[in-house]
Amino acid sequence: MSIASPLTRLAATFVLALGIAVGGWQIGHGFIAGREQPRVISVKGVAEREVKADLALWALRFVATGNDLARVQQQVSADEKRVRAFLTAAGLPAATTEVQGLEVVDLLAQAYRSGPVDSRFIITETLLVRTADVHEVAEASQQLGDLVAAGVALSGQTGGPIQGPVYLYTRLNDVKPAMIQEATRNARLAAEQFATDAGSKLGGILRASQGLFQILPRDAVDGANEQAQAAKIVRVVSTIDYGLVP
User: For this UniProt entry, which segments traverse the membrane (predicted)?
Assistant: First the structure.
């Protein structure tokens, strides 16, 4: 039976200690690496484009009153002819206009009426213009004074102010792909600049979120209504998270 020399035992002890030390370092390093948070940058890319409305809707509402129903009806019919003639002269074909509504009110027939009645009958008619000729509608809407001068009593809903045309943009799908590409490109440019300033390199996309497309008034003054302006701004914002590498 051989007995190990002191030198041999010392060497074995050294090897064992070295193995324990290396194993401990590896375990500790792995634990620390596992707790490190990935370096992430979140940026937004914006794309905007000016567009023109491609559809105009214009409701023209006029009213006639009186105590003789037949005469009130005649007045409404005459007013309708005047309105249609006005639109035709403005370059809007007859096919673009249709009767949207006709309302007849007999005030004496109202159960909860109180006080005297000056005009028993009220007839309200609404003509709706629907056309892609946005420019012609915009021009005609500036000449409404001609109708008033001709004796047409224009009226707004529930006695409110007269409403102008509504301008719509219906071709959003035509511009979406290019705008998404532009927003993504702008986001990457911002992220690359940030990475450069931070002394890092830009990694791959970790997460991306496309915002909603917005149609805004081009002239964003106080109280601006997008549908009242033929010129509009389409806007989209994309949010993208990139990884950063040393």
Answer: none
